[in-house]
Amino acid sequence: MNHPTTKQALITGASSGIGKATALAFAAEGINLALVSRESENLEAVAAAAREVGVKAEAYPLDLAKIEQVQSSISAIAAQLGAVDILVNSAGMGYTGSLTETSLADWQNVLDLNLTSVWQCILGVLPSMRDRGSGIIINVSSIAGIQTFPNWGPYCVSKFGLMALSKTLAAEERARGIRVTAICPGSVNTPMWDTNTVQSDFDRSAMLTPEIVAQSILHAVQLPASAVIEEITLMSNAGVL
């Protein structure tokens, strides 16, 4: 596979769901990959699948919930790569429960992973993007970042915060040639629905697939540097949120 202008992407949450699908979609287009997740075995399997189509792909096991380590770890990965052209912040967690029944610890865990770790990942790659005067940052938000839902309070707060982070970052970095896109999918059939922090009876067969979301991310990345899609709202046409 010959891609004379091969780019380098760093993707968090790359061991499953949207992150995995995005990694494989990027690989098919000749984009080299640095893959981050705490699930080391699954992460290496995704890296191996990407290498099979001819791109460079390295797995970097990292628990983004350990906030104090995130910026330095991502900075070290960026330094090792030499350049990060694309950052996709896909890692995150779901959480259901009323605001009155949410513990302080649970609240903090959701905000740490879904919002603060994204900010720290951005800080890890931003210096090199500024040095080159180019780069694109994709933040995977949610329909819950533009619309609230009862019993999803901490999750909605984290995703509304991510939208504010994305918009502020775009305004601050536009003059430096750095583009920022927030993608807001409706419900996506990912392993998030199998976790013990989410209780839901949605029809998963009617949800978006990770591959559909990944194609939207790929489209945003492939635009000319003179253009940016700042926000994408992507919904299933089957009537499920």
TrEMBL record:
The keyword Oxidoreductase applies. It is an enzyme of class 1 (oxidoreductase). SUPFAM superfamilies: NAD(P)-binding Rossmann-fold domains. Keywords: Oxidoreductase. Belongs to the short-chain dehydrogenases/reductases (SDR) family. NCBIfam families: PRK07454.1 (NF005672). This is 3-oxoacyl-[acyl-carrier-protein] reductase FabG.
